[in-house]
Amino acid sequence: xEKILGKTQIDGWIAALSGYEILAPAVEDGxxxxxxxxxxxxxxxxxxxxxxxxxxxxxxxxxxxFEQIKGEPPRLTQKLPDAPRRAVFGVRPCDGCxxxxxxxxxxxxxVDNYYQARRxxxxxxxxxxxxxxxxxxxxxxxxxxxxxxxxxxxxMTDLGDRYFVAALxxxxxxxxxxxxxxxxxxAAADRKLLEQTHAEAVAHPQRAVNNLDTVPAKLxxxxxxxxxxxxxxxxxxxxxxxxxxxxxxxxxxxDENTSASPLKGNRVRTWxxxxxxxxxxxxxxxxPRESLGxxxxxxxxxxxxxxxxxxxxxxxxxxxxxxTECSVGIDIVTVVNKVTEHAG
Amino acid sequence: xxxVQDIRxxxxxxxAKNEVRAVxxxxxxxxGMFAEPVVITAAEQADQLVWDxxxxxxxxxxxVEDRKFLKHVKQNPDLPIAIVAKGCDARAIVVLMQEHxxxxxxxxxxxxxxxxxxxxxxxxxxxxxxxxxxxxxxxxDLVFATAQGEQRIPAREVxxxxxLECRTPCPKEYDALLGEDxxxxxxxxxxxxxxxxxxxxxVERWKFWERQFDRCIRxxxxxxxxxxxxxxxxxxxxxxxxxxxxxxxxxxxxxVRWIERSAVRSENITYHMTRAIHLAGRCVDCNxxxxxxxxxxxxxxxxxxxxxxxxxQFGYEPGASVSVPALVASFLDSDPGKFIR
Lengths: 344, 341
Description:
heterodimer; A: 344 residues; alpha+beta; 2 domains; 8-stranded mixed β-sheet; 4-stranded antiparallel β-sheet; flat; B: 341 residues; alpha/beta; 3-stranded antiparallel β-sheet; 13% strand
């Protein structure tokens, strides 16, 4: 299904989507984030500081609660999320690709019920990038595209005073059908402009990871390279790069007690982070990834070697957040290119 | 104004004469126009060094990292490590020496005066929609190279607040000093943002902080970037004490988790309050914590509050002098508080 929607009609379309909580990018306290829509929607954002990943994979997920009363067997109560149906507007193609990769991990060979309960209720209404949103975009070099519809239910393209809107899934078709007569059939001129807009978007210069196909083998060959420590020399070991990543999915599981007697609490999954010193700490006190270089190698190798080996695609989608937000200039494009160049 | 060549010459000279084992400085990064920290160990690397309004980083963090590394590998080299230090960085170095983190002879301070300049605030610049490839001071203006050509903005409109309010832009503790030491720079009133904030009543202030801390993702960038956050064990880590081969299972099982991993309001507030209190009388207002926060939590308000408290209650300014005992490690016989005597 492909239609035209006047820009002034978008609020009308959103109002017609009953049964959905609508989220769209908004600025609050100087930060772009997906917020529940409250009034006018203007899709004039660059990209949000955090991807929409958390809607399916929240930073904190309660698995079950537990209670131990003396003399009785422990009581466990599962807490499957009762997530609202949501439609997220303005998702950029790199983050749509991110959702595809998250689905590979949590919704493919093994289905994670908690992830699935949320994910199945999220619809992505994407917005193509007519130009890169920042100086660190590199989607084209990692198999993506600024106009990619991967992972989207609907993809909109800005054609000036109107959007070209394409449904890609049944959910997307239903969302568009709800807008009814707000949409009109695209004219030949609209299609021509769409083609031209997409061609210009793809032609726009971006940063690039070099020779993606050869990267996994070169990373493998460079496992013991001294470059890792050198490139991580300034790393402060914080979690910015991974917590803002649209595809990082490592987690920790803890019991959070709410009462000591009787013993009560929740088993909780929280995001974890391969850059933190305690991520790989063994109970013996031994830490196999003690150095910052080994942790940088893990992050980069997961994106560009292990994930391609397991799923046939790079995990990185080229959004550039980990570069832009790194306070000390650790740059995944530079790191991959330097390590692979060095591998010959 | 400092010529970058002076920094390079100083570093090259120190390394060539084998007076230092490394120089911590800034080089051009690959993330747009921003400088990044670098550690050079050979004289021929000195030409990498840069100096511009994006040299935000408080490099004294890497003195701490260096000490931790040396302790880990059980080395104690004779040669000092050199560091390019702005006024704020030098204050941090002084605090670290007051706390005996390292000795004066362990470090060679290449002081660089920010007199007449200062650091850029990335967010102020971004809010104007400017994507620049270069930034340089020209008198009272900052001049940016952009795809649309040169853009000139009065510096104080896009400089970091901490630089505008800074009273010691020239290092007081150094082995070599580059640039001029002109005291009395007053670009903005100190604690200006704090004063504005405190005009609100307690209910409004609490609502404000709830919103700020709800947003925290606990990436710990604020802690990780802080040269004063050097504890071996941090209250927020899931291992709340250093574990080694001799740590018993019982000790591990009985560890106290002061702060859960969940990024929820109660835990986030406890984390930030703990950090703020631990920085009282130690924070030198380099404001790296606020700069690196990906979700823009105004941490400077907290740290400024503690800084002003130390100043008003005890006449103490963190990082002013190595010869003064650290505030939290000293007391006065004349202290009005009975509990301490």
